[in-house]
Amino acid sequence: MGTVELAHIGLVCKNMEETESFYSRHFGFARARVIDRGDLGLIIFLKNPGGLYLELFPATAVAPVATDIGDGPNWPGFKHIAFAVENIDEVLAHMGDEALITQGPMDLSAMVSGWRTVWLRDPDGRILEISEGYADEKASQ
After folding, report:
1. Residue 141: inside a domain, yes or no?
2. Are residues 47 and 8 in the same domain?
3. Do the domain assignments include residue 91?
4. Residue 119's pLDDT band (boundaries 50, 70, 90)?
5. Statement to judge: residues 70 and 124 lie in one domain
């Protein structure tokens, strides 16, 4: 089997312009492609410098459940989308009032030395994790 890579994460958005602006300003995403589906609306692909794509779709229904809290839901599905940054405090300062924190910042050094993280909401209520200092375990010799 050949190489398998994560291609993109699809997000359904209440306001695609607001969601695009949020991810562009705070996480370095830029428009990579727009597909016009006529009456079905646009699909907007965003790409960040690390090569991660977000695919934005317009919402056509109201969410059937309450907005997530804390670090994300505890039922099967996606818990949160995580971004690694060099400095959480700088990112939060840059985000200002748009940093809608749901949990943290927390020092997780007891699990991984130097690991700090914070969870917040994006414009559509999805939980995002912003993390600094995480490192994989060293392989045992």
Report:
1. no
2. yes
3. yes
4. very high
5. yes
Question: How much is the pLDDT for 139?
Answer: 74
What stretch of H or E contains 42?
strand 42-47
* Strands, sheet with 127-132, edge to edge from the N-terminal-most edge strand: 81-84, 127-132, 116-121, 100-107
The residues, any chain, with a CB within 8 Å of residue 116's CB and separated by 6 or more, are: 88, 105, 106, 107, 108, 109, 131, 132, 133
Closest by CA to 23, choosing from 6, 48, 42, 44, is 48
89 and 122 together in one domain: yes
State how many domains the chain has. Answer: 2
Determine the distance from the C-alpha atom of residue 32 to the mean position of all C-alpha atoms in its chain, rounded to a whole number.
Answer: 17
Distance CA 80, CA 124 (A): 13
> What does the block give as tokens for 103?
């949990």
Residue type, 91: V
The CATH number of whichever domain residue 55 belongs to comes to 3.10.180.10
- Among the three residues 62, 96, 115, which one is the final residue of a domain in this structure? 62
Q: What is the pTM of this model?
A: 0.87
- In this structure, the chain runs to a length of 141
pLDDT band at 26 (very low <50, low <70, confident <90, very high): very high
